[in-house]
Structures are given as structure tokens and as C-alpha cells.
Design a protein that fits this description.
23 strands; 12 helices; alpha+beta
Length: about 550
């Protein structure tokens, strides 16, 4: 055994340390009194204490407390090892061997120390001894875990992660640089490769082309004929879902191919839940509009594409005091079904100034059909076209306009009046020529699609006798009475006008403002477009 005071190794059963004179029996008495205070110490400490006092402990002289007839100390009781068959190792009972730190905390100083030339180092506390034995193993295990984690991270970065040049997100402001042989692979909102889609390139240089792609291997810029270096908007349209996504690209020639990406995956940016979340307060009473950040980001893509294709809105003087709009004439946000998320209304005309003037002088119907009216909704990080028409209404005086009607339920409808007779009216006229009339259809959004809400037509012919007109009425291909026609007109006619946009007019400022009057002249239409572009993030 070792002296608990100086650490000197002792032989036999001694009452005093032969090195320093420390009373060994006093140490045992303190040890016995401290045993009850450390009965709950972990077994690891007990094992360490047993190693230090693992000599012929059972043959030592009883302590003073034992001579007085007191209860045996746990040190002198049967070893813990004898009870291992009866309880788990982690169950520390009251007869556990006390730990050394508890003994040394109350250890008395020797009364008659003996001088010694060199003192042997004292043994470390039992708890520390245990820790020293276990630390190498623990560090070894930790080292293995850290090593495996490092290998896993490195493998992921090497084999699975993509660099910033390998991925581009639809709708981003920065153009991706591509060359003839750059491989572009579109993916959808789920991150899956699109297998069948169309690709359109609209350039600032006036170049526009498209191609159909099948398979999930992507495409190269070389698939577009005679493409020239420049800035473009690339639009991908999924043939199955009909969703469209756009992204700006910069095409460079082969001499600068080192600046271009070799392969790039087009991906839908992840939506921010905080941006798209709608609170209960936003839904009350048909509610204030929800936060439409995600929808605006999608609309921005379409606006960028159309700006590249058509250019900004312009007002052209077609003839003396007659003004017409061309380019991306109108971009407006209209909540057609009043669900809190507005749809995107666009009107575009791709004619040049000379073409527009020429059409006014000889092809009025062709000029009406040169305007493309479309309604878009946000879907899967892109946009989906809900409605399209190549037509503007016109008056006898030559004005051309797009009317929106507000229905009784609050929804907004697109109205279109043409000069096409239904088969029912044609049969009723029996060959007589119509002198006046039109065929009006209104369309509205229901279940994420635009569909026909109502149709009514009225045609006047010269009477067989007398003056005036003889009228015939129909609705959705069936003849109706004048009373029924008047009821439909009252419900969906111009008396329920929500807003009318003018694109061809004798004046650029004679129809009020969008904030007040419902008639919006060409000059104000251009202002509405600029304001809307700012809302979606285009300055």
C-alpha cells in the first residue's frame, strides 16, 4: 500500500508511515466516517479506489472505531464484486468503496512528521486515475467519428453539390452566359427534369425563335438557327403542366466560349413561406390582398420576357390626331376572382410604327387582331396562361379598347364584342343582311381557368315593311326573346363597366385617370404599365 500523505510505498501492516510519520490508523478512521457521504458515487470511482487500496486490506488492524465496537466500515465489508451477480454495475449501493477525494478533503496533518530527503510524488485522485485510463479510448472514438464526418462532407461536396455556375434560377436578374455548345437542362418545381417542353428566345436585338424539345437530356443553343451574340430572355414552357418559366441569358460567340457555362441546370427558386403566408385577417370580407411576393416574382419573369420581345409601351401617331399604342402596351394586376391574389393582365402589339400606320389606312380588322390580350396566374414558381384573345373592341369612330366588366358577385370579367353571327341568328335572318349589331361574350376565372360566363347577341335588319330595324336575339347559340336579351345586357353590359383600357384613340388624355374614372386613355395605360413593372421588381 501507499501512504495517503506522501505516497511512499509501505510494506506490511503499519500504524505509521516510515517515511513521513503519518498516522495510518487516523486516515482509516476518516475514511470510514466519509464512506456514507460518497455511497452514491459512480462505480468508476469505486473501481479506481479499489486499485489504489488493492493490497491485503482484509488483514489490516481494525480502526479505532472498530475497536470501540462500532459498525464495520464499508472498507472492511465484503467487496462490491461479490454482489455483481445480484444487481447491475451502475447500481451503486451504500456499501460501495469510498473515493479518495472525499478522504483527502478531511485528511489531518501528521503530528510527528519524519524528515525525508526526497518526497515521492503523491498518487493522483481516483477520479482522475479513472479518467486517464479512459481518455485515450474516448479520444480514439471521437477521432474516428470526426474523421468519418469529414469524409462524408467531402464526398458530398465532391460528388453531389453543384457550383454556382452549374445552377441558375428562373427569374434571376443576372444573365447566364452561354455559348453554342452550352448544355441547358430545365427542371420543374419538384426539381425533376422536364421531358417535353418548348423553348423560346426573345432578344433585345429583335431576334426571336422557338424550338420543341423532347427528352430530359436538355438542349444546346446551337439548336436555334442563326442565333447571334446578344442578350435574350429564355422561356421554358412545360408541355404537360402549361407552366412557363423565364430567365435572362447572354449568348457569346465561340471566341469567348471560355466565359460561358458548359452545363447548367435551370431550377425554380425555393419559396419563402413568410412571403406567401396569408393570415386570417387577410381573408375577412373578401379581404385585403395577401402578401403576393412570390406571385410578383413569377410575374416579373413574364414581364421580362415580353419587354425583350415587344419593348416598352410606345404611343404612335397613326395619322393626324389619331394615336395608337404598340410594344408591351399594358401590364396590370387585376384580381379577377377576388381571392386576394391578383392575376397579371397583359396586352401587347408587335407592329412597327410603319406597319401600324399602314394597317390604320387599310386594314382596321387586322389592326384589331394585332393586339394580344392575355391573363396569367402564378403557378409553381412560374406563370400559367389562363386566357388569350387576339382582338380589341372598336367603336364606329375607330377607337379600340379592352373592357373589363364587374359582375354582381364582385368578380371581374373580360368582355369581347365581335361581328360574328351565331348559327341561330344566321338561320333566323334567312339570307337577309344585318345592318347593325354585335356578338358579346364575357369570360371569367373559375377553378383556375377562364371560361365563358355569358354570351348574348343582337342583330338588326331592314324590316320587310316600314322604316327602322327588325331585331333578332340569341344567347350561346340559341335564339332568345328581347326581354331575355335585355336582362343579360343589364347584367353584363357596359353599365357594369369596371375599367376600359384604350389603345387606339383620337386623344391621349381625354378619358380621365385610373384612380378615378374607369376609362383609361393610351397615355394613362402606359403609366399603369410602368407602375406595375415597378411593383413586380422591374425599374
Amino acid at each position: 500500500m501507499f501512504c495517503p500523505n506522501c505516497g511512499f510505498e509501505l510494506d506490511g501492516d503499519l500504524r505509521y508511515c516510515t517515511e513521513c510519520g503519518y498516522a495510518l490508523e487516523d486516515a482509516k478512521a476518516v475514511l470510514n466516517s466519509a464512506s456514507n457521504e460518497v455511497a452514491e458515487e459512480p462505480s468508476v470511482i469505486n473501481e479506481a479506489a479499489e486499485e489504489i487500496f488493492a493490497s491485503d486490506e482484509t488483514e489490516k488492524e481494525p480502526s479505532a472505531g472498530a475497536e470501540a465496537g462500532e459498525e464495520k466500515s464499508p472498507v472492511e465489508s465484503d467487496p462490491v464484486a461479490d454482489e455483481e451477480d445480484d444487481r447491475p454495475k451502475d447500481d451503486v449501493s451504500s456499501d460501495a468503496t469510498p473515493s479518495i477525494p472525499a478522504v483527502r478533503a478531511d485528511r489531518p496533518k501528521p503530528s510527528n512528521p519524519v524528515a525525508k530527503p526526497v518526497a515521492a510524488p503523491a498518487p493522483a485522485p481516483a477520479a482522475n486515475v479513472s479518467a486517464q485510463k479512459k481518455d485515450p479510448k474516448a479520444l480514439y472514438i471521437v477521432g474516428i467519428i470526426v474523421g468519418l464526418a469529414a469524409i462524408a462532407i467531402f464526398s458530398y461536396l465532391l460528388f453531389f453539390s453543384k457550383s454556382s455556375d452549374d445552377v441558375a434560377h428562373y427569374g434571376q436578374d443576372k444573365a447566364i452566359v452561354v455559348a453554342q455548345e452550352s448544355k441547358i437542362t430545365p427542371t420543374d418545381a419538384k426539381g425533376e427534369k422536364i421531358k417535353k417542353y418548348s423553348v423560346t428566345l426573345n432578344g433585345d436585338n429583335g431576334y426571336s425563335t422557338n424550338a420543341e424539345v423532347k427528352g430530359d437530356e436538355g438542349f444546346t443553343v446551337s439548336q436555334f438557327p442563326d442565333i447571334k451574340p446578344g442578350k435574350y430572355t429564355l422561356t421554358v414552357r412545360d408541355s404537360k403542366s402549361k407552366v412557363e418559366w423565364s430567365i435572362p441569358v447572354k449568348v457569346v460567340d465561340n471566341s469567348k466560349s471560355t466565359d460561358a457555362v458548359k452545363e447548367v441546370s435551370l431550377e425554380v427558386p425555393k419559396a419563402n413561406e413568410d412571403d406567401t403566408k396569408t393570415g386570417e385577417g387577410d381573408k375577412k370580407d373578401g379581404g385585403a390582398a395577401a402578401d403576393n411576393t412570390a406571385a410578383y416574382a413569377a410575374y416579373k419573369q413574364k414581364c421580362q420576357e415580353y419587354l425583350a420581345c415587344y419593348g416598352e409601351p410606345r404611343i404612335v401617331e397613326a395619322t393626324d390626331s389619331v394615336y395608337a399604342m404598340r410594344g408591351l402596351c399594358l401590364v396590370d394586376l387585376v384580381d379577377f376572382d377576388q381571392d386576394g391574389q391578383p392575376e397579371l393582365l397583359t396586352v401587347a402589339n408587335g407592329m412597327s410604327d410603319d406597319e401600324l400606320k399602314s394597317a390604320w389606312n387599310g386594314d382596321i380588322e387586322g389592326l384589331q387582331k394585332s393586339y394580344t390580350v392575355e391573363v396569367w396566374s402564378a403557378a409553381d414558381g412560374g406563370v400559367k396562361r389562363l386566357y388569350s384573345q387576339n382582338w380589341l373592341d372598336n367603336s364606329n369612330g375607330g377607337t379600340m379598347f379592352l373592357p373589363l366588366i364587374k359582375a354582381d358577385d364582385g368578380s371581374i370579367l373580360v368582355s369581347q364584342s365581335t361581328y360574328e353571327m351565331s348559327n341561330a341568328i344566321t338561320a333566323l335572318l334567312a339570307g337577309r343582311q344585318a345592318l347593325a349589331g354585335d356578338n358579346t361574350s364575357v369570360y371569367g376565372k373559375k377553378c383556375d381557368v377562364f371560361s365563358l360566363v355569358s354570351n348574348y347577341e343582337s342583330w338588326g335588319v331592314a324590316p320587310s315593311e316600314g322604316n327602322g330595324y327588325e331585331y333578332y336575339y340569341a344567347s350561346e347559340g340559341k335564339d332568345i326573346s328581347e326581354t331575355d336579351y335585355n336582362a343579360l345586357y343589364q347584367q353584363f353590359g357596359y353599365g357594369h363597366n369596371y375599367r376600359t383600357y384604350y389603345f387606339f384613340d383620337f386623344s391621349t388624355s381625354g378619358y380621365g385617370s385610373i384612380s378615378g374614372e374607369s376609362h383609361v386613355d393610351p397615355n394613362r395605360v402606359a403609366e399603369v404599365t410602368k407602375d406595375t413593372l415597378k411593383k413586380v421588381g422591374i425599374e
